[in-house]
Design goal:
The protein has four helices and four strands. It has helices at residues 2-18, 30-35, 45-58, 128-159, and strands at residues 37-40, 68-83, 89-104, 110-123. β2 (68-83) and β3 form a beta hairpin.
């Protein structure tokens, strides 16, 4: 069984090498360009969380001059779901829509524009503190997911050679 698994792994690796597969971050300049994105987020808890997540995901370095500047706009919505017989929601759907504009730091010209929409649900408890904690945890998860999606979009864009 071990020999079969080893042979299968070799065949898969040789197949990937033969098809021209190249990891996204193997493209020259992708990682340094991502680290050079300076982020401006709106005020508020979700803006702060998203900026922190993006800076971590992109490995932003404040010590170097930025290559790009990213301006973010957020739209948050909360919908009651799972309404009990006494018309109290036991579950909420949280939707975070993030709009971003990437501009060149050198010229100030817009080089990329995008939108990321994250939907998730969370339980709402009868206790006020537990309900607030659940909502805040949903904001944290949404900010993390939005940052990851923006990171992938930017990395794919940079790997394709679309630079300012």
């Amino acid at each position: 069984m071990r020999i079969l698994a080893g042979a299968l792994a070799v065949v898969v690796l040789v197949g990937l090498a033969g098809c021209g597969f190249t990891p996204l971050y193997a493209q020259p300049g992708v990682t340094p360009a991502l680290a050079g994105v300076q982020i401006t987020a709106p005020e508020g808890r979700t803006g702060y969380l998203l900026r922190e997540q993006l800076e971590e995901q992109l490995s932003y370095s404040a010590s170097a001059a930025p290559t790009y500047r990213m301006a973010l706009q957020l739209a948050e919505e909360r919908y009651p779901r799972g309404v009990r017989i006494d018309n109290v929601a036991t579950r909420y759907e949280y939707v975070l829509t993030t709009y971003y504009v990437l501009t060149s730091a050198a010229s100030g010209a817009e080089v990329k524009r995008g939108q990321v929409r994250i939907q998730l649900t969370y339980d709402s408890a009868d206790q006020p503190y537990a309900s607030i904690a659940a909502q805040q945890e949903a904001q944290e998860r949404a900010a993390d997911q939005a940052a990851r999606r923006i990171q992938v979009e930017l990395a794919a864009w940079l790997a394709a050679g679309a630079r300012s």
